[in-house]
Design a protein that fits this description.
Low-confidence stretches: 558-562
Strand content: 15-25%
CATH architecture of one domain: 2-Layer Sandwich
Mean pLDDT: 89
Radius of gyration: 24 Å
Number of helices: 16
CATH superfamily of one domain: ANL, C-terminal domain
Number of strands: 27
Oligomer: single chain
Strand order of the largest sheet: 2-1-10-9-11-12-13-14
Length: 562
């Protein structure tokens, strides 16, 4: 795509979005539920969701009726927040839409978290009632029983008359650089805007079917993918979780022309045995984030994908204009130089001076209207903001991410700042993992950090541990692993550990020098015993296993679904 075409198309997208928001304002739309109900009116008998494994899809009208029942139930409880602890399903979508219809904020819990953490998150967020899988100490309702009840027909927009576009529609928990899972707000405006932007850039229509295996309790699955289906009148094909073995069979069976992804999804698929008919599938466009070069070209060639739409974003950030729909591999965003949107994203050095094209800097995003509500706790917002940076009264959101931008306006993600790393599409807090390790009672000192390994995007978790008692291969190490699995989600469990006999090197202020450990990585196996999480257990990292790891031939973690 040449430069003039890219600029022309960017302007076309921007103009369409402006006109769409004007139309919604004229229709007095004030919530995501309003947009949903207008889609129901337009595509009543069309398919909206087909759950993999179920015989029949749900129509817009059927999902709306289920949402009405959830709404009526929610209204009777008189709660501001209601938790949702469910796997991907049509009922999950009915639940979230129903709560939106009732003017209730849906607090979306990660079903992969430990019961202990879920309970803590619920209490700290003011959630007294949840719908779905039980959470300890929280009153739980079964959505199936609610949907089996009779609907009085009493649900209407009047129940959400106090809701505005800038009020939260859902709350999603994110793990940031400060080391704690924090409840981040997704406003009605952001849910609607994501649907408009992504349906437009992917070319989604009422004939489209979008394959969703990403968790619906995350932004990509719900706001990006499902909201796009609602906006376009498309059908969401939903699977509980991603499976390498089932992927091609699913997209062929359900005739899916689009797939929402994180980069690891395509990495798993690319590492699977290649078949002669891999490219014979209906998928035309894939959209998401983390599809880095050279995996980008490899995926398109092997699976016959026509288009990739890549984006940059974070759960708690203001709406981002950074998407790359141009077909240029490895980039996460594009804004033509000279376009007004350019002024909304800047890259700065440690002194907050704008860096030159090609240089790396922290990404700052202008806050629209100078009003920012990123977290449920307003005190957390201030840690992400910078005021009066370039002119009096301006307000900027600090990403904590390092990006670069070239002279043509393409953005590339470089790395994350702070004491966290990204693994398998999840942000992993070093502090949280360290606390979990220490809580086992078997460890005197623990240092957690991310290290790069060949063949994998992101960084894998590694822990350097000074044990209190013997932790060697066998029962003691397996018991330690079992404890970690109870305390942490699978992506948070350190995949490589090394055991030391002395306290770690510290600075003059008694802070452990983590940078040295990251530089050393996992290669000093002769100096320290190293263990690697392989096929569900910790095994000694031998020279042979190290060679396989360095060649990208070792799948870390638990056994993959193949």
């Amino acid at each position: 795509m040449d430069k003039n075409t890219m600029v022309e198309k960017y302007n076309k997208y921007a103009n369409y979005e402006t006109k769409r928001w004007q139309d919604l304002a004229e229709q007095n739309v004030k919530s995501w539920a309003d947009v949903w109900e207008k889609s129901v009116d337009r595509w009543s008998e069309c398919q909206i969701v087909h759950q993999v494994g179920c015989i029949s899809p749900w129509t817009y009208q059927e999902l709306d009726r289920a949402a009405d029942k959830i709404a009526e139930w929610a209204i009777s409880l008189n709660q501001k927040y209601i938790g949702v602890n469910q796997n991907n399903s049509a009922i999950f979508l009915a639940t979230v839409l129903g709560l939106a219809k009732a003017g209730v904020v849906a607090v979306l819990f990660n079903v992969r978290e430990s019961e202990q953490k879920l309970s803590t998150l619920a209490v700290n967020s003011g959630v007294k009632i949840t719908i779905g899988q039980p959470i300890p100490s929280i009153k739980t309702y079964n959505p199936n029983l609610i949907l089996e009840s009779l609907w009085s027909g009493g649900t209407s927009a009047e129940h959400r008359r106090q809701v505005t576009l800038d009020d939260p529609a859902v709350i999603i928990f994110t793990s940031g650089t400060s080391g704690r899972s924090k409840p981040a707000l997704f406003s009605h405006r952001r849910m609607i805007g994501a649907g408009i932007a992504w349906s437009l850039r992917t070319g989604m229509s009422s004939d489209s079917k979008c394959y969703i295996t990403l968790p619906l309790y995350h932004g990509n699955g719900l706001a990006v993918a499902f909201s796009s289906c609602v906006e376009a009148g498309a059908c969401a094909v939903v699977r509980d979780r991603f499976s390498v073995r089932a992927f091609l069979s699913d997209v062929r069976t359900y005739n899916c022309d689009s797939v929402v992804y994180i980069g690891e999804l395509w990495r798993y698929l690319s590492q699977s045995p290649q078949q002669l008919d891999d490219s014979k599938n209906p998928v035309q466009v894939i959209f998401g984030n983390g599809l880095t070069f050279p995996l980008w070209d490899m995926v398109l060639e092997r699976f016959g994908i026509e288009r990739v739409v890549e984006h940059y974003g974070a759960t708690e950030m203001p709406a981002s204009a950074l998407t790359n729909w141009t077909g240029r591999p490895g980039y996460c965003g594009f804004i033509p130089p000279g376009h007004p949107d350019t002024d909304n994203v800047v890259l700065v050095d440690e002194k907050f001076k704008v860096v030159a094209p090609g240089e790396v800097g922290e990404a700052l995003l202008r806050v629209p209207g100078n009003i920012y509500r990123g977290y449920l706790d307003p005190q957390l917002d201030e840690n992400k903001l910078w005021r009066n940076l370039f002119e009096s009264g301006d307000l900027w959101w600090r990403s904590g991410d390092l990006l670069s931008r070239d002279t043509e306006g393409f953005f590339m993600f470089v790395d994350r700042m702070g004491d966290s790393f990204r693994w398998k599409g999840e942000n992993v807090s070093c502090v949280e993992v360290e606390e979990a390790i220490l809580s086992t009672g078997k460890v005197r000192e623990a240092v957690v950090y991310g290290v790069s390994i060949p063949g994998e995007s992101g960084k894998v978790g590694m822990a350097s541990i000074l044990p209190i008692e013997c932790l060697q291969e066998g029962q003691t190490l397996n018991d330690f692993l079992y404890q970690l699995q109870e305390l942490l989600p699978s992506y948070g469990v350190p995949h490589i550990i090394r055991l030391v006999e002395q306290h770690h090197e510290t600075t003059s202020t008694m802070k452990i020098i983590k940078a040295n450990l990251q530089i050393e990585g996992f290669k000093q196996i002769e100096k320290y015993p190293h263990f690697i999480l392989y096929q569900g257990r910790y095994v000694r990292l031998t020279r042979d296993l190290l060679s396989a790891l360095e060649l990208g031939r070792l799948n870390l973690g638990f056994r993959l679904i193949l």
